[in-house]
Design brief:
With 62 residues, this protein is mostly helical. It has 2 helices and no strands.
């Protein structure tokens, strides 16, 4: 099982990628309190889309 640090790092990387895909700038220091709910939601939605695509791709290969 992955450690918490590995999991946190992977999710943070996924978040940064999703933010880039939807065009929302994130601070690299971890604090993004200035984001609107719409911006945060678009990042989360893109993360879910990417997770579903990854899961589907992994399971279609089996």
């Amino acid at each position: 099982m992955a450690s918490n640090k590995q999991t946190k790092s992977a999710l943070n990387s996924m978040k940064m990628q999703a933010a880039s895909e939807v065009g929302v700038p994130l601070n690299s220091n971890g604090y993004n309190g200035e984001l609107t709910a719409k911006q945060a939601g678009s990042i989360g939605g893109q993360m879910v889309k990417n997770m579903i695509a990854s899961y589907t791709q992994q399971n279609s290969a089996q």
